[in-house]
Every structure is written in structure tokens, then in C-alpha cells.
Design a protein that fits this description.
By secondary structure, this protein is an all-alpha fold. It has one domain. The protein contains seven helices and no strands. α1 runs antiparallel to α3, α1 packs antiparallel against α7 and α3 crosses α5.
């Protein structure tokens, strides 16, 4: 595997790990508990920052891959990262909670499938042209 493909896989793996962490942090609590727990909020927000940074790196460094996978909300993930990173005390935790509940499970599956497509493409044997 060449270095560029390896790096793309790393970015996608970082997104998957951060999503998994957010889902784990929020799995055993309800919305009220989330809104009351600064520790969970901080952990979740940190991982949204990781997701956004990795998503932005995929878009910038691998534009062909991003274009081939329009189902991945990479731009939205980066916008979310900017909102939570620069919002400081103005972060809308209701939106964060809704995003966890409604968007992250699908994003997890989409990123897993995109990563599998890379792995599958790498394992296909070379076929002669013509």
C-alpha cells in the first residue's frame, strides 16, 4: 500500500474511532444527563473536533476520494468542528445531542463502507487491459 493510501486509511480510522468514542460516551445516558455532564460534553466535543479535522484532511488531501463518496458529510463534519471549536461557551448542546442521536450512527456506517471499499480495491487482482 502506498503512503497516500495509508494516510487516507488513517484519516478514516480516526473518524471511526472518534465516532465510536462519542457513541460510547453517550450510550448509557439520556439527553438530560448529557446536558448536565460537563465531562461528557467536553469528551464529545473533543471527538467532534477530531472528526472534523480528519474530514477536512480527507477533503483537502484526497479530493478524488471525497468526490467518489458524496454520501460522506465531510464538509458538514468540518463545519460542526468549527462550531464546537470556536463556539466556546456558545455551543448549542441540544444540536450536539441531536447530532449524536440522528447523524453519527449513519456516518459511522458510511465511513466503514468507504474504508472497506479502499480495502476491497487494494485486494483485487490486477487484470490485463483489453
Amino acid at each position: 500500500m502506498n503512503e497516500e493510501k495509508h494516510r487516507l486509511r488513517d484519516y478514516l480510522a480516526h473518524i471511526l474511532e472518534a465516532i465510536a468514542r462519542i457513541l460510547a460516551y453517550s450510550a448509557a445516558i439520556d439527553k438530560r444527563a448529557f446536558l448536565e455532564s460537563q465531562i461528557v460534553q467536553d469528551a464529545v466535543i473533543r471527538n467532534f473536533e477530531v472528526i472534523g479535522e480528519a474530514s477536512n484532511s480527507v477533503q483537502k488531501r484526497f479530493p478524488k476520494f471525497a468526490a467518489q463518496h458524496p454520501e460522506l458529510p465531510l464538509a458538514l463534519a468540518y463545519q460542526m468542528r468549527n462550531a464546537v471549536a470556536h463556539g466556546y461557551f456558545e455551543v448549542d448542546l441540544e444540536i450536539v445531542w441531536t447530532t449524536i442521536q440522528t447523524d453519527l450512527p449513519a456516518f459511522l456506517i458510511q465511513v466503514q463502507q468507504a474504508l472497506e471499499s479502499i480495502t476491497h480495491a487494494e485486494s483485487e487482482p490486477m487484470r490485463p487491459a483489453g
